[in-house]
Amino acid sequence: MTDRVYPSAKTNGTATAAPNATAANPNAATMKNQMYNNPSRIPYRPTPTSYHRHNRRRCSCRRCFCMCCFWTILSICIILLLAAIAGAIFYVLYHPQRPTFSVSSLKISNINLTTSPDDTTHLTTKLNLTLSTKNPNKKLIYNYNTISITALSNQVVLAKGSFPGFTSSPSNITIIHSTLSMMSQVLDADSVSSLKSDLKRKGGLPVTILMDTMVMVKMDKLKSKRVGIRVTCEGIHGQTPKGKAPAVASTNNAKCKVDLRIKILKWTF
User: Fold this and answer.
1) Is 184 helix (H, G, I), strand (E, B) or coil?
2) Which of 37, 71, 118, 130 is 20 to 30 A from 86 via CA?
3) Where is this region: Disordered (predicted)?
């Protein structure tokens, strides 16, 4: 006898059910395929938690940096505003003015150029200088250190001298007498040529006076740090002395300018 093979009921059930499900909803498979096979669809990618933490940390650091910049700028603006207010109050109360200088007289006792056997030129000079300085302030006191004085002619140093320190009271005039000299100073070729040319001028030898010193300003119980000032006096012309009598330089057109070497004054109690 031959055995008969019967198909499984489960297989028949499955095979039968599938066509029925497709027949019940024929568009489901097509929509599913279109949804997953669409090339313009953006794939879903889950965002890691670390990215959010890094992003929050970056925003926090940026916020802190912006706040620091804001408070720093605000503090600087407040300090500048307070400094401007203090400066305005100081100016209204004291009305500070720079000291004034003027050249009273300049006498040239000796200007001598000598050439040695080794073809070097030596300069020997002697000048007597008289200046006056005035403190135009009514409440400020100027306290000067030793003043170094230099006489030049077109950047060629003619003579040097100094004047001891002093105190200039309000509305006070101080007279400065100083002897400037140079003993056998060696000059280079350019300086010799410039000086000889200036000595031949009809208007006389042009002379510039430079004064450098340190000054401290006092007012009531306040005093400033010592600051450097430079006084430049120009418009002086002198002749070469003849004989033993000194030659008197022309100072009618002399003008002196006072410049601060440090622009910021620091006040202390």
Assistant:
1) strand
2) 71
3) 1-53
Strand partners, 106: 129
Maximum Cα–Cα distance across the chain:
168
pTM: 0.66
Q: ∠ at Cα 35 (29, 41), nearest 5°?
A: 170
247-248/100-115 β-pairing: antiparallel
Q: CA nearest 159: which of 101, 112, 119?
A: 112
What the block records as the tokens of 224 is 């400033």
108 - beta bridge partners? 127, 247
What are 171's two structure tokens?
């509305």
- If DSSP codes are grouped into helix, strand and coil, which group holds residue 86? helix
Report whether 155 contacts 210 (CB < 8 A): no
Number of alpha helices (DSSP H) and beta strands (DSSP E) in the chain: 4, 13
What would the pLDDT profile of 125-178 be if each residue is shown by its tens digit? 999 999 999 999 988 899 999 999 999 998 899 999 999 999 999 989 999 999
154: which DSSP letter?
T
DSSP, collapsed to helix, strand or coil, labels residue 128 as strand
